[in-house]
Predict the 3D structure of the following.
Amino acid sequence: MAFELTALPYDYNALVPFMSPQTFEFHHDKHHAGYVTNLNKMVQDTELADKSLEEVIQATFKDPAKAGVFNNAAQVWNHTFYWNSMKPSGGGTPTGPIADLINTAFGSFEKFKEEFKNAGVTQFGSGWAWLILDNGTLKVTKTSNAENPIAHGQKALLTMDVWEHAYYLDYQNRRPDFAQAFLDHMVNWDFAAQNLAAA
């Protein structure tokens, strides 16, 4: 069963002016699609072909012989998760259990925002900033390249892509401005709350 490119959960222009249709056309239709194509070629006629994306990620992490498979599988998963981590008219302040856990873990929502933004801004080179659930506690982490919380047995609640292709057309070298716009105007707290409830 071949892996498929997941459709965006909104239109290309849904996040204007914070993210342009051109960014989605390149990021989703070229980069994300490329990872799907590469992954299908790599796992064809292997024991991984019938596994889920999560199983492929766990089976290939830290296996030098399968680094290419891991990178493409993780990037397919990461991008699908990322699209859902944003929504039109996003941002704002979360409510309910996730808000309570954020206040407990970070002291306040503003402190969380500072820590999450800092994780994205200080990730050297390409990578991701994450809000995760780890042994019942919310944490902010960052990973390089394709690495993700699944590889470490953690539950991802939210992610921000800080590979340059995620923001360069709209923000050029201003990664902090992109991270701020993500938190203030794009982040999908409903999705994070759903992930927490399912954990």
In short: The CA atoms of residues 39 and 73 lie 6 Å apart.
